[in-house]
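tool_call: predict_structure(chain=1)
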Amino acid sequence: MTDHNLPPAPDGDYAESGVPSFDYVRDQIESRFTTALGSTELAGEQPEAAEFEEKFTAREQAGRDKLEEIRRSLNKD
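tool_result:
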């Protein structure tokens, strides 16, 4: 692609070639990270999240118990 075929670069945080600046990319990453972190915190405060966590923990323990049972049965042979 030649220079005259390039779309015009957006104002501000982009170079003439259309490449974003380091500060712009860092700000975007930090923004997405804080949004994800906030969403996770909010989800953890919901009663459904607590119920899900309890069910998940119970399922994990049941899996560990079943695995231990299988291991014991294999060692008896």
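agent: The helical segments are 22-44, 47-75. Proceeding to next step.
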